[in-house]
Inverse folding.
């Protein structure tokens, strides 16, 4: 069986990847410092259900411990780096901590991949935030949503990066290191600039995972805070589609460095207002949301131009926004008691 290393295996994306690959005849070595609420529960699930899962509680800033882990695995097919400091809000509170986790943590992993597993694929979870606030691209408001100016399919990889916020800077520098290790050291590195990923098993919080946060708050009958005017939009991508993309990358012969924008694309564009409307129609939302001021550096709209990833990896999202929203809503309703314990 082939070995994979998944950092952040207790997180939403890392856990979903681990479940998939463990069920498909891979060994998974999971790494997580368990700092995010709910991560420990996910690791318990993986340990209980899969003999081929090995877990290390480890911080990605700890080079010594990572060195021990990386040097003890014989041959690694791919490293999926999903661990990270994930909110802009936290990065504003403590930019140095944010940089250590996202910047230095990623560099540690690249360094050890180069040292011990230089032929493997290194897949990095980057973000749409590397393109900055996009204030220089005109937007238009149509009904409940902001769109990019006419005829734009979405943001393509050709747009210059323009980091905004410490989170944007730390993720952006990691993104460039990953790309450059592919270029300079001839490693096989893949940067996935993800837009908004959502789905079952997600535990959204105010600063990250807005779809899951709003749905979970609504079903727990808690107050919902909306930052900005609610017209802001993202191209939402259901987790199963993202896992399918990783599957393609793992099974494909990829050489050198690649950068892809990854999201649901224009047809899966959703605004905060759209989500609120959806919950009202489902009779889930009773209270009026509270509005708070727009978050610093927040993009009014973002959707990925998926042309490159479609052409090179033959991948495009299959799960429509409406079927994805119904799936996550059903999941959250069925797991209400667990959610209440975790969000307590
Ligand atoms: N979910 C999205 O919509 C989205 C969008 C763009 C980019 N991303 C990126 O994808 C990755 C995964 O996102 P997610 O939604 O699964 O986040 P998540 O918070 O659910 O998972 C991150 C995991 O990393 C762990 N972690 C945090 N700091 C760590 C450290 N110093 N050392 C080791 N482990 C640490 C946490 O405990 C958690 O289990 C992140 O890097 C995030 O920035 C996510």
């Amino acid at each position: 069986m082939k070995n994979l290393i998944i950092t952040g295996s207790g997180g939403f994306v890392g856990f979903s990847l681990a479940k998939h690959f463990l069920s498909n005849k891979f060994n998974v070595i999971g790494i997580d410092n368990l700092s995010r609420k709910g991560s420990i529960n996910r690791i318990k699930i993986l340990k209980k259900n899969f003999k081929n899962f090995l877990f290390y509680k480890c911080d990605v800033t700890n080079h010594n411990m990572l060195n021990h882990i990386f040097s003890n695995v014989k041959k690694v097919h791919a490293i999926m780096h999903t661990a990270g400091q994930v909110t802009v809000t936290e990065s504003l509170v403590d930019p140095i901590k944010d940089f250590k986790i996202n910047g230095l943590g990623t560099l540690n992993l690249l360094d050890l991949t180069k040292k011990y597993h230089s032929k493997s694929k290194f897949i990095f979870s980057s973000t749409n935030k590397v393109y900055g606030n996009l204030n220089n691209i005109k937007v238009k408001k149509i009904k409940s949503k902001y769109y990019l100016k006419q005829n734009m399919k979405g943001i393509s990889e050709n747009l210059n990066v323009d980091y905004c916020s410490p989170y944007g800077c730390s993720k952006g520098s990691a993104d460039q290191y990953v790309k450059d290790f592919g270029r300079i050291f001839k490693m096989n590195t893949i940067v996935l600039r993800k837009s908004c990923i959502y789905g079952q098993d997600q535990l959204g919080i105010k600063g990250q995972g807005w779809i899951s946060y709003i749905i979970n708050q609504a079903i727990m009958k808690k107050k919902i805070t909306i930052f900005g005017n609610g017209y802001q939009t993202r191209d939402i991508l259901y987790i199963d589609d993202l896992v399918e993309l990783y599957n393609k990358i793992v099974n494909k012969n990829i050489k050198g460095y690649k950068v892809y924008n990854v999201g649901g694309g224009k047809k899966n564009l959703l605004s905060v207002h759209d989500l609120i409307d959806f919950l009202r129609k489902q009779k889930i939302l009773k209270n009026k949301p509270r509005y708070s001021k727009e978050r610093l550096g927040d993009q009014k709209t973002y959707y990925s131009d998926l042309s490159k990833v479609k052409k090179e990896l033959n991948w495009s999202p299959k799960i429509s926004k409406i079927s994805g929203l119904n799936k996550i809503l059903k999941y959250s309703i069925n797991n209400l008691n667990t959610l209440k314990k975790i969000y307590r």
